[in-house]
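User: Sequence recovery, please. Input:
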């Protein structure tokens, strides 16, 4: 199990305890540009690897490279693995030899570990939607409710795919899932959630997420993975518009919307894109108010 971290992490002890309870072959703690963890306090079977600042994507990749097992699970230092997670996910992968990655559902918790009921309910609907649509490339573009701390990968497939893109520290997970989904199957962990995802002030900022979503869309389009008219291409083009709008680049969003309509005229039927395009023509003061309501 790979746990990346940078700097003091108030919930690391809880994360490590939950990981150790799963009895993994090893726990790899990857310190990204810090020397905060005392190796003497780590649970048995844990290894501590320290690197100069490399970012969480490369930190996870380094953890996978150091792993000595065919399966590698991920857990962020502020999240919690729920009992039975590893057994269930390894079983799901072994039952599906063509699968590169196994994911499960999560519970949303706050800083005290209390369940956040409304956010957990939203996650249930999202994961149900993914299961209903099917675990395909296109389905992930519609909505991807897969959290890193709820995934276990087949190490060989992860490495062959290039792992997480070290240039990205936001939506690097979606980028990986899309690449894996093009070449392999993804498999679900049926039943109860496998992890708890903690919501707190240190989560990834919105602007990072919008920028990450834009990079994912650009990468997929540039790679020609959706070069012909298709729903996948429409979804990627619409994601570009939404991301630019979220970043406050109104001119860029308008340009992207017009370009998208030239490639995919059917996008004009999409209410959100029409709304973005029309709003981009509004006066700046009105645009500022609209962005606050997004």
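Assistant: Recovered sequence (294 residues):
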């Amino acid at each position: 199990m790979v746990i990346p971290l940078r700097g003091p992490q108030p919930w690391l002890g809880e994360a490590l305890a939950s990981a150790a309870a799963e009895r993994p072959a090893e726990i790899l703690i990857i310190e990204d540009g810090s020397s905060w963890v005392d190796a003497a306090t780590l649970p048995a079977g844990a290894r501590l690897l320290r690197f100069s600042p490399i970012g969480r994507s490369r930190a996870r990749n380094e953890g996978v490279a150091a792993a000595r097992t065919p399966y590698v699970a991920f857990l962020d230092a502020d999240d919690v693995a729920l009992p039975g997670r590893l057994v269930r996910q390894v079983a799901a992968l072994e039952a599906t030899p063509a699968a590169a990655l196994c994911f499960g559902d999560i519970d949303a918790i706050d800083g005290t570990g209390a369940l956040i009921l409304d956010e957990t309910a939203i996650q249930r609907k999202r994961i149900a939607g993914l299961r209903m649509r099917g675990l395909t490339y296109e389905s992930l573009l519609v909505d991807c409710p897969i959290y890193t701390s709820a995934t276990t990968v087949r190490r060989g497939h992860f490495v062959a795919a290039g792992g997480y893109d070290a240039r990205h520290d936001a939506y690097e997970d979606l980028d990986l899932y899309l690449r894996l989904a093009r070449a392999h199957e993804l498999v679900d962990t049926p039943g109860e959630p496998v992890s708890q995802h903690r919501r707190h002030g240190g989560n990834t900022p919105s602007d990072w997420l919008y920028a990450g979503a834009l990079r994912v869309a650009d990468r997929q389009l540039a790679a020609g993975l959706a070069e012909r008219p298709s729903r996948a291409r429409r979804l990627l083009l619409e994601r570009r518009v939404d991301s630019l709008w979220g970043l406050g680049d109104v001119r860029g969003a308008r340009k992207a919307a017009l370009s998208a309509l030239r490639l995919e005229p059917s996008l004009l039927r999409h209410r959100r894109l029409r709304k973005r395009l029309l709003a981009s023509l509004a006066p700046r003061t009105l645009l500022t108010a609209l962005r606050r309501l997004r």
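The chain has a mean pLDDT of 90.
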